[in-house]
Specification:
By secondary structure, the chain is mostly helical. The chain is 82% helix and 0% strand. It has helices spanning 9-12, 15-20, 24-65, 71-79, 88-102, 108-131, 134-166, 171-227.
Length: 233
Amino acid sequence: MDPQNVTHPAASLSVGHLVLNASPVVQIILVLLVIASIASWTIIFEKWAVFASAFKALARFEKRFWSGGEMSQIYQHVSGDTNLETGAGSIFCAGYEEFQRQRGKIRPSDALDAARRAMRVAQMREVGRLENRLAFLASVSSVSPFVGLLGTVWGIMTAFMHIGAAGQATLATVAPPVAEALIATAAGLFAAIPATAAYNRYIHKLDKLDAQFEVFMDEFTNILHRQVPETKS
């Protein structure tokens, strides 16, 4: 017997060999999980840059806002700088613009309410921008293990079918489909675990930024209230 023509069991159970010779259903499941994993990692790196930029923008704006000066000067500075007019900066601009628009036309308390509503809309817009595509990470986190489980169940079913066809349970009959099943499970976890960790991390960052936006809105509303007190009758 030519040693070169002997198929070694270890070679037949390698990951690459098992994937290439897996059943079409398992191969489709693995392809879907690989695509989901690639998309998840793309979003993970993208959102890392987005949140890092958001925290830096918040720090820059707060430094400028609390450095002092007239509100009109701060508004001109912030509205003319794309590095400041984002996050809390956009909330400030929306509130200031609405307050100036309504000031003198309606009661001061109503002008403050209008400014507060404008800031709330800007806040929701900023949170929505930061939250964009996080739902995909949540979906991958929750769905991928079940997709991998489907491949696992299919691989075990294939193993039993091979046993029935061969009439006996041998390692050569059972090992390949069982190994396919385990690969599908591993692929599902490989896609789900990073997505879960990243989603939880970014939701925490989003909540932190949202809370800081709320604090700024309260502080800015108080500043406007002190500048334009309610007229007593």
